Amino acid sequence: MVGKDRAKPIRELDLERYRALYGLTAVVLSNFAIVAVAIVGVWRLGGDKSVIIGVLTAAFTAVSTMTTAYLGIKAVSNTAQAMAQGAPRPTPTETPTPTPPSPRTPDNPHP
Fold first, then answer.
1. Which of 84, 82, 111 is closest to 99 using CA atoms?
2. How many CB atoms lie within 10 A of CB 38?
3. How far is the C-alpha of 59 from the C-alpha of 28, rounded, in Å?
4. Helices 49-86 and 12-45, interaxial angle, to 10°?
5. How far apart (Å, rounded) are the C-alpha atoms in residues 110 and 104?
């Protein structure tokens, strides 16, 4: 039973799905935590409207920053991955063929 104790290799597509799923889960849970803290903060502050506005503004800023950062990083990652997969790679056996020099003519003494 040598093969049973070895871990299965993860395919590249599965790895990207796991990264996307766990990244999105982390962002959503963080946003819920920020909203929960803002609600508790507003509830505990009673009726001081200027402080409530500050708490809600800070919470909105934190949620939007967290979500925008995740989406931006994900977009850049996807773009970089697509560029890396689409770039042609030269094979080691391919060598460029040299172009022959132009012949000397009376009009062109230095090729």
1. 111
2. 19
3. 14
4. 170
5. 7
**pTM (2 decimals)?**
0.61
Which residue, 20, 18, 17, is CA-closest to 70? 20
Task: Report helix, strand or coil for 105.
Answer: strand
Residue type, 98: P
- Give the torsion through C-alpha atoms of 48, 49, 54, 55, to 10 deg: 70
Distance linking the first and last C-alpha atoms of the chain: 71
Euclidean distance between CA atoms 52 and 38, whole angstroms: 9
Most distant CA pair in the chain, distance: 97
Span 81-106, pLDDT tens digits: 888 877 665 566 666 677 777 666 76
